[in-house]
Amino acid sequence: MPNTLISSIRGTIASKDNSTIDIDISNGITLSVISPLTTIEKTGNIGDPIKLLTSLQLRQDSVTLYGFASDEDRSAFETLINISGVGPKLAITILSILDARSLASAVETENTITIMQVPGVGKRTASRILLELKGKIDKIWNIPISIDESDDVFESLTSLGYSIIEAREAISKIPDYETLTVEDKLRISLQYLTTK
Question: Which are the contacts of 91, defined by CB distance < 8 A and separation ≥ 6?
């Protein structure tokens, strides 16, 4: 369950980089929100309106607001930070590479290699994440787990040596995704990756 002291934030984008979005919430107040790259990529430009779901984390020496584009990603973050060895910084790094659905797929297929592609995640931590999350995702994150064709394409691309980010980007560029075969999707993805 999210920390509900501040459950969401709405305003306009004052500035942003690869890890932080500054949001002007009016009356001269701007809040700095740490977000995964997968969330930041979905936001607009400076001056555009924005709404993020948030998780307020209180530590002995800091108060930090984390922002997410979806409730799934926020739930994933709050689940991850309760795993031994995974703090907020590493959880944000994980969700910058794998959004909640991609992470759920990796957990369901017990794919430690995919999780180990996240900087700072070794085999021990990846195994602990799998152990802690296995069987809990559909209940905790409200993500229905199904292994579909997108997972096949994703697995094929990463097994060929492409990074998680490259595979995710290539799949997002496939037109008419639902009507194509797995082979067609893989061919289009490879064409995109070899020509970009």
Answer: 76, 77, 80, 81
Q: Is residue 177 part of a domain?
A: yes
C-alpha pair distances (Å), 164 with each of 12, 94, 171 = 30, 11, 11
Which tokens hold the place of 153?
Answer: 């394409």
DSSP 92-137: HHHHHHS-HHHHHHHHHTT-HHHHHTSTT--HHHHHHHHHHHTTTH
Percent of the chain clearing pLDDT 90 (strictly above)? 36
- Domain count for the chain: 3
Helix (H, G, I), strand (E, B) or coil at 5: coil
Per residue in 121-147, pLDDT (tens digit) is: 999 999 999 888 886 666 666 555 444
* Element at 178 (helix H, strand E): none
Structural domain that includes position 43: 8-68
